[in-house]
Specification:
The complex is a heterodimer. By secondary structure, chain A is α+β, with helices and mostly antiparallel strands. Chain A has two domains: 61 residues, Arc Repressor Mutant, subunit A; 84 residues, Glutaredoxin (3-Layer(aba) Sandwich). Helices cover 44% and strands 11% of the residues of chain A. Chain A contains seven helices and four strands, in the order ααααβααβββα. Chain A has a four-stranded mixed sheet, covered by helices on one side. The longest helix of chain A is centred in the last third of the chain and has 16 residues. Chain B folds into three domains: 212 residues, Rossmann fold (3-Layer(aba) Sandwich); 100 residues, Ubiquitin-like (UB roll), CATH 3.10.20.600; 105 residues, NADH-ubiquinone oxidoreductase 51kDa subunit, iron-sulphur binding domain (de novo design (two linked rop proteins), Up-down Bundle). Chain B has 19 helices and twelve strands. In chain B, helix 2 runs parallel beside helix 6, helix 5 packs across helix 6 and helix 16 runs parallel beside helix 18. Chain B starts with 17 loop residues before the first helix and ends in a 16-residue tail after the last helix. Classes of the chains: A alpha+beta, B alpha/beta. Chains A and B meet through helix 2, helix 4 and helix 5 of A and strand 4, strand 8, strand 12 and helix 15 of B.
Chain lengths: 165, 450
């Protein structure tokens, strides 16, 4: 598959590149990969990384080594919504284990897996900076905090509704 | 009620917008700095203020600024470290989310002091919605003449750009952050050369934490000497503390560093006591990497003095009986918490976040996690405790960047103060899976392995 940014996406890429001095366009790589991941299927296939390399005039390997280093870049297909549940100390002492077990039970998947309908992926992550509002998870751009089982239920219903409608 | 310098206006409705922020006296420090002061006199004020880096290391900011090289014809840069990732720490998030213009104001004054025209805010990738808030604030500031070319008719140009990271704790280390800003993996650089000489794109660069840069605003407005009168000793000014764990009122608090730890935990003005009326077991007072302290050593020092919420008092006794103020990430554990499990989650965190460059950290963090996992799941042996101690000692001080130390310290402190809880886990492999050691360690809290 080949990938091409549309006009809006290309304008955004140019805005990102323009922040850096002439010849330092590689600095835009992280923001460009966020843009690429958000613009297509939520993950970064090799062809898409190659496309970004060509746009930034760098070698493909320079993109691969960065994409594989940072935990927010997905190198495998993911569901439409990713539940990234924090499991580090402060969340753990506030009950994240129960929340993680409950989500696994509700969605019938294990961490790292995606539901059969392709809607949800469960990912366990390390501290997201919401320790005072624990337990918590990130879904897309949003932090869902002070999680309880009831709250998890309503969040699942909420996202599922956006798909079935 | 202590002095508030950063969050004093946090509750004013609409303070996130330029209009309200300006009406409340915002951007005065830019007027003062650009019209009445020069870069040298600003650096002098910051030195006089005694301000120490608020990211965790506590290095004097004025001194850091004075190191920046000024070669002819080479641009210099200021980089704001907003990669807040140390477990327990969420203070910068609060400041940027609710008073974004305070950070911008501090950045403009600091950029002027350093002679930097292009300034970057490197924010952790997960704070995506805060990136939008900052971009909006930058647009407002630009539209009102505080950013761009010829600010206030002085000829000074300042542009602020926000770049999102993508999930890597290591990028909070300043040279890893610079690498990341250059579009690379976040591998820390060998120092020297320090960023002040060769930083971003090999140009002289200063990297400061969000809270540090915001504190420049009150320092310029009130003067360095007045700022230094707040607080105590070398802990001048105010500090943001993000409190979390088993307390009644988790959140971000601005303190003036003269209050006691006991007051901070139990007063209704701050944490409001332990949740559910339970007992305090332990606390990690400055972000997950600093040594955990059992309750008795937290509230009083080993010599019986009251412990205060400041740099000197929290580190009183060194690592044997003290800890650190660090980033101000204050994690409270109640009587029901298991020290072995808590240490395991932190060890897992540092294993996950190790960049892999240095073998002691790459291999050692993995081994520490594995051994802790064994002990936590009832498969440990007494010799494992000594092995853990040995591994952490071999990581500390043997890596390019401080992540190695950050991974070693929590393990070392847990063994130092809670060795009997580890032993109990090992000696009770079945019982420890369903019950808790509780507060038994109080009989004899200090164990220092040879």
């Amino acid at each position: 598959m080949t990938y091409t940014f549309n006009e809006t996406q290309m304008a955004e890429l140019n805005r990102l590149v323009a922040r850096y001095p002439e010849g330092k366009q590689k600095s835009a790589l992280l923001p460009a990969l966020h843009l690429a991941q958000d613009s297509f299927d939520g993950w970064l296939p090799t062809e898409l990384m190659d496309y970004i390399a060509s746009l930034l005039k760098i070698e493909p390997i320079e993109v691969y080594e960065v994409a594989s280093f940072y935990s927010m870049f997905n190198l495998k297909p993911v569901g439409k919504f990713i539940f990234e549940v924090c499991q580090t100390g402060p969340c753990m002492i506030s009950g994240s284990d129960d929340i993680i077990a409950y989500i696994q039970e509700k969605l019938a998947i294990k961490p790292g897996e995606t539901t059969k309908d392709g809607v949800f992926t469960l990912k366990l992550v390390e501290c997201l900076g919401a320790c005072g509002y624990a337990p918590m998870m990130q879904v897309g751009k949003i932090f869902r905090e002070h999680l309880t089982k009831e709250k998890v239920d309503s969040i699942i219903t909420e996202y599922r509704a956006t798909v079935t409608n | 009620m202590g002095v508030k310098l950063l969050l004093d206006k946090a509750n004013v409705p609409g303070i996130r917008t330029y209009e309200v922020y300006r009406r409340e006296g915002g951007y005065r420090s830019v007027e003062k700095a650009l019209k009445e002061m020069n870069p040298e006199s600003i650096v002098e004020e910051v030195k006089k203020s005694g301000l120490r880096g608020r990211g965790g290391a506590g290095f004097p900011t004025g001194m850091k600024w004075s190191f920046i090289a000024k070669p002819e014809g080479v641009p210099r840069h200021l980089v704001c470290n907003a990669d807040e990732s140390e477990p327990g720490t969420f203070k910068d998030r609060y400041l940027m989310e609710f008073i974004p213009h305070l950070l911008l104001e501090g950045l403009i004054v600091s950029s002027f002091a350093l002679g930097a025209n292009d300034t970057y805010i490197y924010i952790r990738g997960e704070y995506a919605w805060i990136t939008d808030i900052l971009e909006e604030a930058i647009n407002e500031a630009k539209a009102n003449g505080w950013l761009g070319k010829n600010i206030l008719g002085t000829g000074f140009e300042c542009n602020i750009h926000v770049q999102r990271g993508a999930g890597a704790y290591i990028c909070g280390e300043e040279t890893a952050l610079i690498e990341s800003l250059e579009g690379k993996r976040g591998n820390p650089r060998i120092k020297p050369p320090f960023p002040a000489i060769q930083g971003l794109w090999q140009r002289p660069t200063v990297v400061n934490n969000v809270e540090t840069l915001a504190a420049i605003v009150p320092i310029i407005n009130m003067g360095g000497e007045e700022y230094a009168k707040i607080g105590v000793g070398r802990s001048t000014g105010t500090k943001l503390i993000s409190a979390c764990g088993n307390i009644n009122k988790p959140g971000v608090y601005e303190i003036d560093m003269t209050i006691s730890v006991e007051e901070f935990i139990y007063s209704d003005e701050y944490c409001g006591g332990i949740k559910g009326g339970k007992q305090l077991k332990a606390c990690i007072p400055g972000g997950s990497s600093v040594p955990i302290l059992p309750a008795n050593l937290l509230l009083k020092t080993a010599t019986g003095e009251t412990r205060y919420m400041n740099y000197e008092s929290l580190s009183d006794g060194g690592f044997a009986t003290g800890s650190m103020l660090g980033s101000g990430g204050f994690i409270v554990l109640d009587e029901d918490q298991c020290i072995v499990k808590n240490t395991l989650t932190l060890a897992r965190f540092y294993r996950h976040e190790s960049c892999g460059q240095c073998s002691p950290c790459r291999e050692g963090t993995g081994w520490m996690e594995k051994i802790l996992h064994k002990i936590e799941h009832g498969q440990g042996t007494i010799a494992d405790i000594d092995l853990l101690w040995d591994i952490q000692r071999k990581i500390e001080g043997n890596t390019i960047c401080p992540l190695g130390d950050a991974a070693a310290w929590p393990v070392a402190a847990a063994i130092r103060h809670f060795r009997d809880e580890f032993e109990w886990h090992i000696n009770n492999p079945v019982l420890s899976q369903t019950s808790n050691f509780g507060l038994q360690h109080y009989a004899d809290p200090i164990h220092v392995p040879a």
